[in-house]
TrEMBL record:
Belongs to the glycosyltransferase GT106 family. This is O-fucosyltransferase family protein. GO terms for biological process: fucose metabolic process. CDD domains: O-FucT_plant (cd11299).
Amino acid sequence: MVILSVKPLFMILVVPLALLLAVALLSPPSPYSQSFLPSNSSLKPSIWTVRRIIGWRPCKWWQLGDLTVAELKSNGYIRVDCYGGLNQMRRDLCDGVGIARLLNATLVLPKFEVAAYWNESSGFADVFDVEYFIHQMNGFIKVVKELPSEIASQEPFQVDCSKRKGQFDYIESVLPSLLEHHYISITPAMSQRRDRYPQNAKAALCQACYNALRLTGSLEKKASELLEAIPKPFLSLHLRFEPDMVAYSQCQYSGLSSASIKAIEAAQGDRKPWTGELARIWRKRGKCPLTPNETAFILQSLSIPTNTNIYLAAGDGLMEIEGLTSVYTNVVTKSGLLTGEDFTSMHGNTKAALDYYVSINSDSYVATYFGNMDKMVAAMRVFKGLYKTLFLSRRAFADFTSQGLRGRDLMQALWKAHRDDYVLGRGSALPDCFCEVKL
Ligand SMILES: *[C@@H]1O[C@H](CO)[C@@H](O)[C@H](O)[C@H]1NC(C)=O
Ligand SMILES: *[C@@H]1O[C@H](CO)[C@@H](O)[C@H](O)[C@H]1NC(C)=O
Ligand SMILES: *[C@@H]1O[C@H](CO)[C@@H](O)[C@H](O)[C@H]1NC(C)=O
Ligand SMILES: *[C@@H]1O[C@H](CO)[C@@H](O)[C@H](O)[C@H]1NC(C)=O
């Protein structure tokens, strides 16, 4: 029933829009109607030239700020503790700010703790501009850089919401600790519902997430150097086909190199891939990461010319990359463009920040997955008025190939599926802080 990672909101949208869409789609001729050239012919219009019906904007209700925050009596101090990858930490920061505002707390600068596999110690201030954050949060939530002396020496009381099971209420379960200890640290829980937050808490969350984070000066300098070095115009492609990703997906692939198979097996542990009917169902549900080869095929289906400049926003562990680079020949990576020692000594956290920066400034952005980075980048692109953003549909690809579609028929089906997503603005922004507009 549900296509892609479509939010319920979209389902409400889709029905009335289907009519509108039907009308709109009858008029422009199919790009394949005259000739079918799976190549870089500039005569054939790309997906980006299709007229969109729905677009996204940041909602007005949160941009205005919150006039009550200045007079609030604070219930205590909250530090948001964030773990994992850069974009996961950022997501937790957004949630944490919302919770702090919900509890009428004063925010202490967040703690960014980096996962062990990154082997580094990059904190919030190493990645994001602290002064800018404090300035931008003014009028949304109180933020302090320093704690008052009576609590400055103490460690915060830790409340790890991510360990709590099921739905719970932050006021009921966290406020008592805050009132008792005056200074707590929280790790937000992904599963908690935000829909019951008052508007001011949602506004603080949106502002923190999308309008208060800017890279530190030195990181931004490095990132803009990288941006400048990329041939223009360019597409930023977030490709996820790393051993841990593939192992985690429990999907089976045929035709992988023996090096890839070894790397996947090493990352697998006890998590063996599904086999037989289960594997088929799993794949049809869109659970399997797209290979670089499949990605190249879908990009061609979208009439994205094979001579397009592509920036690969990805880590070093990508497997089977020849599947892409044998078709799309103008692919650049950060490690190819930045070779100085300041780059080679950079770690995962800061490298991820470079990919993020380039991706929110690229002419177009295509993601093969719908992860934290993709959600963040899509939202920031909307914020900047960059609308050429698309999530490739693993589900559509699996669905069509399991129906036996191949070659030109498969390309045409993929074109239609992605065109509909693009026309309807599906997946280009997060509904929480963004509102759809008819174009
Ligand atoms: C397509 O790209 C190839 C190599 O990238 C080039 O040789 C060829 O001229 C291009 N064709 C068109 C129609 O642009
Ligand atoms: C936060 O402050 C507002 C306004 O004073 C009050 O209505 C609300 O109950 C407070 N919430 C908490 C959790 O203290
Ligand atoms: C982590 O960093 C230390 C010091 O830079 C280094 O000696 C060690 O080998 C690194 N560990 C990994 C797993 O990269
Ligand atoms: C993908 O791989 C298959 C099998 O190796 C090959 O036939 C096909 O041409 C490749 N497609 C692309 C787009 O590279």
